Amino acid sequence: MFYWIRIGDTGSYESFDDLDDAVDCLNENGAGKIDHWVDGGPGIGIDTPNFHGHDFISLFWGDNAANPIRSLTRWEQAHVEKRLAEVLN
Fold first, then answer.
1. pLDDT for res 88
2. For helices 74-88 and 19-28, what crossing angle results, to 10°?
3. Which in 30, 48, 49, 86 has the greatest CB count within 10 A?
4. Which residue numbers in the chain have pLDDT < 70?
5. Which pTM was predicted?
6. Domains held by the chain: number
7. Contact by Cβ (8 Å): 52, 32
8. Which residues is 57 bridged to in the sheet?
């Protein structure tokens, strides 16, 4: 399993073995502060001021082909929120 990210609806899926590497990618691409977590409807991931609605950021655990297996745990979500906030301060 990998962490998968797709930034916005025009982005490509990118896999990560490490959550910190995934968050570094979010920061490098200007994800911004998380407004809320998306879990259902359009997908699994996060809404931010820069990426929201159907243009949200996909972020989930998935298989080798980027098929979602599960959402991040609450601990993983808190870690992502903390690491994104560190860059904004």
1. 63
2. 40
3. 48
4. 88-89
5. 0.90
6. 1
7. no
8. 7, 46
